[in-house]
């Protein structure tokens, strides 16, 4: 028994020595050893540990999990333990890659080999932001960024996101034409710590060239609105009615503590300044009071805190409608670029008024053209050209035919602008809001959620301001309810709507034209204009809506 036992130990001992000798003879791969994401076209250092018996090496690559192999180095490598590899540039991401190192002795005989312990990726497409560990505020605007190195021409990029790791939802907006490498995303109002974004690059035949997603999970934080949400400098374009229509561009300075100080930049009547106090609700609705006249105001702050609406419906000291855009930095004429739907309400001082919906195309270099789509006082006006200037802080000035100019502002992302005429040769007052149209990809689902809408309009009984809540089911049905108005009596009801691929919005009201306008590609804001005065009230109006924060 003892002899047998010691014999077994001896056998085991010699087996261990043999295995150790084999290990010593074989090189050991250090990197890539599994789990890496290596960018195509980069220079990557392959490393291995040298061994006693192997003095020469060959390296091989497999991108089908070891089924086939191709040689990496052109000549046998001598007395080294690393190699700078010019990484391949395939048409799409290669996710099942392995590297193998083979060692040879001085006579050229193979003495051992080692392979990556697990697969790695050669990445043609790499989503760089948002990335793992980031925390992003819901409603904020962030850049989705990616880098690419592909031999295949890319015609568009499709972007999507997930908040649960299971269901992927489209990033609202059109496909990114070509391969821009960045896309401005309005973060949804969905709290989660399981978020990722995904980018798919499409070839000209709409087949996928490459797909990648965030390397790790990031978080979306929904913060209830508070007074602190309303902070900074805003340009407020407004129209007010006392004895007649007045237009003003105000500089609003919100301190985030419930107080706004305002002063006049340009006005059709006087140069008022003063203070407004406000109280913000968690969903972005706020109540305000002008300390000059004591009148109460009601409004809504956008999810991204960059746009606000404010109204005066009390009639004690005149009714009014205001549209505010947060000041920016580093803008120029390129901020206004593309085709916009522009809703306008205008009136000659002491005379008649009208509404119109137009298309305005800006070239990003200071020139634009205006094309009338609908108008309330007869046939559309002829197309005309304008010039414009965008200041670094977002202030906009335009020069129109006939010798007048208009003033306003543009949002930092270029999606929204406001303009107003305060002094013209023909004594006209105008208030305009424009929202950018989209090349395509939108539908009724883009216009979904809860909104606050403000209307400024007129009937044969006079001018009015109305504040409403609105809920859209994303499938063509709206539920509306008045919150405040200047004419008394609150109403509610339902309506249908349709959204074109470019964001064109139509809300039929039984009239030939109905309400026409646009919804933004991110679903955060919308605009409609009533230009049909054939009904009994001769009603015409401009209505702007902003999404509430959840």
Task: Annotate the secondary structure layout.
Blueprint: H1 2-25, E1 28-31, E2 37-39, E3 43-49, E4 56-62, E5 70-71, E6 77-78, E7 82-86, E8 94-104, E9 110-115, E10 120-123, E11 125-129, E12 135-137, E13 141-148, E14 156-162, E15 169-170, E16 176-177, E17 182-186, E18 192-202, E19 208-213, E20 218-221, E21 231-241, E22 245-255, E23 259-267, E24 274-280, E25 285-290, E26 296-301, E27 307-312, E28 319-326, E29 337-348, E30 353-363, E31 367-375, E32 384-390, E33 395-400, E34 404-410, E35 416-421, E36 428-436, E37 448-459, E38 462-473, E39 477-485, E40 492-496, E41 498-499, E42 504-507, E43 515-519, E44 525-530, E45 540-547
Parallel strand pairs: 2-10, 12-20
Antiparallel strand pairs: 1-3, 3-7, 4-5, 4-6, 4-8, 8-9, 8-10, 11-13, 13-17, 14-15, 14-16, 14-18, 18-19, 18-20, 21-22, 21-28, 22-23, 23-24, 24-25, 25-26, 26-27, 27-28, 29-30, 29-36, 30-31, 31-32, 32-33, 33-34, 34-35, 35-36, 37-38, 37-45, 38-39, 39-40, 41-42, 42-43, 43-44, 44-45
Say how many strands there are.
45
Task: Summarize the main sheet.
Answer: 9 strands, antiparallel
Please give the share of residues in helix: under 10%
Work out the helix count.
Answer: 1
Taking Cα atoms only, what radius of gyration do you get, to the nearest Å?
32 Å
What's the pLDDT, averaged over the residues? 88
Distance between the termini: 80 Å
Strand content: over 45%
Structural class: mainly beta
* Strands side by side in the biggest sheet: 40-39-38-37-45-44-43-42-41
Q: Which parts are unreliable, with pLDDT below 50 for 5 consecutive residues or more?
A: 1-24
Shape: elongated
């Amino acid at each position: 028994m003892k002899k047998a036992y010691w014999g077994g130990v001896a056998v085991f001992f010699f087996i261990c020595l043999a295995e150790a000798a084999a290990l010593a003879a074989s090189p050991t791969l250090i990197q890539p050893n599994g789990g890496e994401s290596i960018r195509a076209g980069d220079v990557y250092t392959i490393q291995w540990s040298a061994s006693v018996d192997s003095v020469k090496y060959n390296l091989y690559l497999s991108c089908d999990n070891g089924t086939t192999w191709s040689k990496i180095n052109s000549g046998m490598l001598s007395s080294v333990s690393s190699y700078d590899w010019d990484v391949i540039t395939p048409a799409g991401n290669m996710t099942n890659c392995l590297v193998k190192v083979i060692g040879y002795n001085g006579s050229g005989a193979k003495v051992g080999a080692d392979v990556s312990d697990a697969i790695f990726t050669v990445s043609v497409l790499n989503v760089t932001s948002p990335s793992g560990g980031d925390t992003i505020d819901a409603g904020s605007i962030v850049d989705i960024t990616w880098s690419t190195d592909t031999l295949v021409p890319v015609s568009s990029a499709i972007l999507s996101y997930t908040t649960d790791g299971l269901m992927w939802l489209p990033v609202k907006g059109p496909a990114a034409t070509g391969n821009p490498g960045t896309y401005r995303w309005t973060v949804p109002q969905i709290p989660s710590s399981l978020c990722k974004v995904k980018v798919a690059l499409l070839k000209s035949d709409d087949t996928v060239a490459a797909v990648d997603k965030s390397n790790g999970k990031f978080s979306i934080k929904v913060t209830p609105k508070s007074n602190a949400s309303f902070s900074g400098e805003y340009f407020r374009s407004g129209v007010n009615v006392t004895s007649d229509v007045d237009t003003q561009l105000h500089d609003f300075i919100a301190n985030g503590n419930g107080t706004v100080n305002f002063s006049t930049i340009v006005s059709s009547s006087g140069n008022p300044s003063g203070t407004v106090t406000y109280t913000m609700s968690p969903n972005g609705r706020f109540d305000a009071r002008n300390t000059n006249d004591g009148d109460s105001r009601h409004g809504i702050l956008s999810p991204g805190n960059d746009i606000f609406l404010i109204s005066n419906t009390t009639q004690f000291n005149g009714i009014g409608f205001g549209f505010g855009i947060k000041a920016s930095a580093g803008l120029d004429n390129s901020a206004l670029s593309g085709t916009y739907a522009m809703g306008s309400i205008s009136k000659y001082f002491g005379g008649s008024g009208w509404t119109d919906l137009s298309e305005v195309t800006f070239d990003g270099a200071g020139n634009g053209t205006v094309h009338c789509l609908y108008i309330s006082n007869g046939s559309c006006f002829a197309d005309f050209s304008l010039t414009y200037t965008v200041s670094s802080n977002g202030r906009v000035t335009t020069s129109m035919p006939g010798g007048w100019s208009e003033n306003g502002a543009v949002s930092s992302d270029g999606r929204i602008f406001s303009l107003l005429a305060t002094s013209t040769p023909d004594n006209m007052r105008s208030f305009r809001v424009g929202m950018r149209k989209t090349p395509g990809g939108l539908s009724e689902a883009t216009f979904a959620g809860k909104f606050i809408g403000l209307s400024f309009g007129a009937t044969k009984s006079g001018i009015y301001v109305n504040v409403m809540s609105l809920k859209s089911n994303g499938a063509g049905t709206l539920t509306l309810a008045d919150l405040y108005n200047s004419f008394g009596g609150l109403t509610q009801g339902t309506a249908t709507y349709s959204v074109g691929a470019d964001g064109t919005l139509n809300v039929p009201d039984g009239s030939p034209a109905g309400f026409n306008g646009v919804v933004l590609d991110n679903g955060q804001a919308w605009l409609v204009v009533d230009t049909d005065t054939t009904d009994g009230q001769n009603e015409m109006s401009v209505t702007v809506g902003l999404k509430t924060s959840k």
